[in-house]
């Protein structure tokens, strides 16, 4: 969603802001803007559209010229994407950019209008700018007026602020929405996320709720709490470099990230193996904790939730513990029956997804234990969970999740194996066997990428004219095909659904018409014959069948137009292999349709509002 940056230092501020915003493009946006001090004046440039539109506009109208300022990419919530609604927004002496949603903006706007203030845009952000300006005009102290303002705000916000009376200083504050403070040599930054500033510095502070930061070139960074007391902060260092946020010769981030999956699995799994068995002690998970778990709920959104679907099948199968998978936005509002003894697993790449965070807080309130599986270090979900397993995918830039989903799967397995052993459902031999197989997955995934790229490309050419398609499967194959279907629709814009193959006859099979593509996943031996029967049913009604199965499977003649074979492997782990061609099919379909693969329309990478 919206991206925020800010800079103060010795470089050309406009260039730094645009370049840092470019690194946040992956979050999704529909307009952009910057505000830079030119001597004592704040000069604003903003435009609907992409950053290149802003750059073009600045070429014509002039680029703000100075060494301190703030910038923003906006994903419209209040008011359509337009030049006027783009950030920054200003009051008389205050200009700011905002990520988040102000829930009580209508009441605040009414109050400000009664004070004679006028508004130019439809945004909730302009209300914050005017409110801050209102307090500043009375108090004349920037920090105190930020404190007064934020006390009035309901909702979520990260704000980058400049005050006309304080040239070459940037202020920042946050609640719920993420914001980091980058610390360089004689230059400092604010940003929604580390990738924005990694080309300048790897060192940063995490800003806590309601903390206020003041950045300047010579005085460095000072942080205050909401009582105006100085706070001392721990300096963190990103453990990846600029290559991690570049395309490194790949045409798109998505394909780069698909290829990074073997490394991502190694980085996630290897540090958690001791004596050939998973060891999650450092995450506060030990056999005693596991033995006391009553029910498990896996709560998440999108791909992260789909990793939980695979987790459910695996955990229930081998650890014999009941698992409910819930969409976070449903869970948080349905008064779930949870309490002491239950474990809620929250899965999130960004660690900032608003619904997942709210679901986790609700579970805590009700007395359940929370375990977060998170990729982004220091994110809110990571910080608030009782137990935490970091996935080590590195930064995922493409909106369509691939490597983050893959490592979420790998953690589901680590957890399931340890739980099954702790509960006495598998013996040590089986425990070590499963672990050894998990350790083989990076190599297997690499092999599958090599073996399935060409055929996935071919298959994708057959999907280009489809209006709609189905993914079908049973058991683990069904759980996995949910992710395949999401991947395809989000980047190719072709409608698709994932269906439990056995459920087709109860309604959905009526959709099958001549040449409608059906991607049938049939990798689980125990269910193979059953799925083959379902494939025959759709084939008989004219479907164009793309079948994914294991090498050596006996595929009856004429039931499939294309057969994509996956190497034989431990079946419980096959989702980690089969997701590769599903990702590749989606990728190549999107490429061939000429879509914006990494930033599909209407989507944002990190959904920090409801
Ligand atoms: O950051 P999160 O993992 O919490 O995000 C959840 C979903 O928004 C995300 O998985 C989304 O579905 C993917 N980008 C789709 O590829």
Give a brief rundown of this model.
This protein has 610 residues and is an alpha/beta fold.
Indicate the topology.
Elements: E1 3-8, H1 13-22, E2 31-38, E3 41-48, H2 51-61, E4 68-74, E5 89-90, E6 94-102, H3 105-114, H4 124-139, H5 142-152, E7 155-163, E8 169-175, E9 180-183, E10 188-191, E11 203-206, E12 212-216, E13 220-224, E14 236-237, H6 253-259, H7 261-269, E15 273-274, E16 277-278, H8 287-291, E17 296-300, H9 302-319, E18 323-327, H10 328-331, E19 343-348, H11 354-365, E20 369-374, H12 380-384, E21 387-390, H13 403-422, H14 428-463, E22 468-473, H15 476-492, E23 495-500, E24 517-522, H16 525-540, E25 544-550, E26 562-566, H17 574-592
Parallel strand pairs: 17-18, 17-19, 19-20, 20-21, 22-23, 22-24, 24-25, 25-26
Antiparallel strand pairs: 1-4, 1-10, 2-3, 2-4, 5-6, 6-7, 7-8, 8-12, 9-10, 9-11, 11-14, 12-13, 15-16
The structure holds 5-amino-5-deoxy-1-O-phosphono-D-mannitol.
Describe the 3D structure.
The structure is a single chain. An eight-stranded antiparallel beta sheet has the order 3-2-4-1-10-9-11-14, with helices on one face. Strands 5-6-7-8-12-13 form a six-stranded antiparallel beta sheet. Strands 18-17-19-20-21 form a five-stranded parallel beta sheet, with helices on both faces. β24, α16 and β25 form a beta-alpha-beta unit. α3 (about 105-115) packs across α4 (about 125-140), α4 crosses α5 and α15 (about 475-490) runs parallel beside α17. The termini are close together. The chain has 17 helices and 26 strands. 5-amino-5-deoxy-1-O-phosphono-D-mannitol binds near residues 302, 349, 490 and 606.
């Amino acid at each position: 969603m919206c991206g925020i940056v800010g800079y103060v230092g010795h470089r050309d501020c406009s260039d730094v802001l645009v370049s840092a915003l470019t690194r946040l493009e992956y979050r999704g946006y529909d307009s952009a803007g910057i505000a830079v001090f030119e001597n004592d004046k704040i000069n604003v440039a903003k435009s609907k559209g992409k950053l290149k539109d802003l750059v073009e506009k600045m070429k014509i109208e002039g680029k703000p010229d100075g060494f301190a300022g703030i910038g923003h990419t906006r994903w419209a919530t209040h008011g359509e994407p337009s030049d006027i609604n783009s950030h920054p927004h200003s009051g008389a002496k205050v200009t700011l950019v905002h990520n988040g949603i102000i829930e009580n903006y209508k009441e605040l706007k009414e109050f400000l209008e009664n004070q004679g203030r006028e508004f130019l845009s439809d945004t909730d952000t302009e209300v914050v700018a005017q409110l801050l300006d209102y307090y500043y005009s009375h108090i004349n102290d920037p920090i105190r007026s930020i404190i007064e303002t934020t006390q009035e705000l309901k909702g979520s916000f990260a704000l980058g602020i400049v005050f006309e009376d304080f040239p070459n200083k940037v202020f920042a504050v946050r609640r719920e929405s993420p914001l980091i403070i980058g610390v360089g040599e004689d230059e400092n930054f604010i940003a929604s996320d580390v990738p924005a500033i990694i080309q300048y510095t790897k060192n940063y502070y995490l800003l806590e709720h309601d903390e206020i930061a003041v950045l300047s070139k010579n005085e460095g960074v000072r942080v205050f709490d909401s009582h105006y007391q100085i706070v001392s902060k721990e300096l963190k260092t990103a453990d990846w470099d600029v290559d991690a946020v570049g395309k490194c010769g790949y045409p798109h981030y998505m394909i780069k990230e698909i290829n990074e999956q073997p490394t991502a699995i190694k980085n996630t799994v290897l540090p958690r193996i001791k004596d050939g068995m998973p060891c999650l002690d450092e995450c506060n998970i030990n056999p005693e904790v596991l033995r006391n778990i009553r029910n498990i709920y896996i709560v998440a959104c999108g791909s992260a939730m789909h990793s939980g679907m695979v987790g459910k099948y695996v955990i229930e199968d081998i650890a014999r513990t009941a698992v409910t998978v819930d969409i976070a936005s449903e869970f948080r509002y349905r008064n779930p029956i949870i309490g002491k003894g239950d474990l809620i697993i929250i899965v999130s790449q960004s660690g900032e997804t608003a619904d997942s965070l709210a679901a986790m807080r609700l579970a805590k309130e009700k007395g359940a234990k929370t375990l977060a599986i998170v990729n982004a270090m220091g994110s809110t979900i990571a910080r608030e969970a009782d137990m935490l397993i970091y996935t080590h995918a590195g930064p995922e830039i493409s909106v369509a999740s691939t490597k983050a989903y893959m490592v979420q799967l790998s953690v589901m397995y680590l957890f399931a194996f340890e739980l099954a052993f702790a509960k006495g459902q598998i013996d040590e031999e089986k425990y070590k066997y499963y672990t050894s197989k998990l350790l083989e997955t990076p190599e297997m995934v690499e092999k599958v990428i090599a073996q399935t790229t060409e055929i996935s490309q071919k298959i994708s050419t057959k999907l280009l004219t489809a209006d709609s398609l189905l993914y079908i499967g049973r058991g683990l194959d069904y759980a996995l095909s949910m992710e395949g279907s999401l991947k395809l629709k989000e980047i190719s814009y072709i409608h698709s659904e994932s269906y439990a193959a056995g459920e087709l006859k109860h309604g959905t099979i009526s959709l099958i018409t001549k040449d409608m593509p059906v991607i049938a996943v049939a990798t689980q031996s125990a269910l193979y014959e059953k799925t083959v029967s379902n494939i025959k049913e759709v084939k008989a009604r004219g479907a164009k069948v793309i079948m994914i199965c294991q090498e050596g499977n006996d595929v009856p003649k004429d039931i499939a137009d294309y057969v994509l074979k996956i190497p034989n492997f431990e079946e419980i782990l096959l989702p980690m292999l089969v997701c590769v061609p599903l990702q590749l099919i989606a990728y190549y379909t999107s490429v061939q349709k000429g879509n914006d693969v990494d930033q599909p329309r209407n989507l944002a990478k990190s959904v920090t509002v409801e």
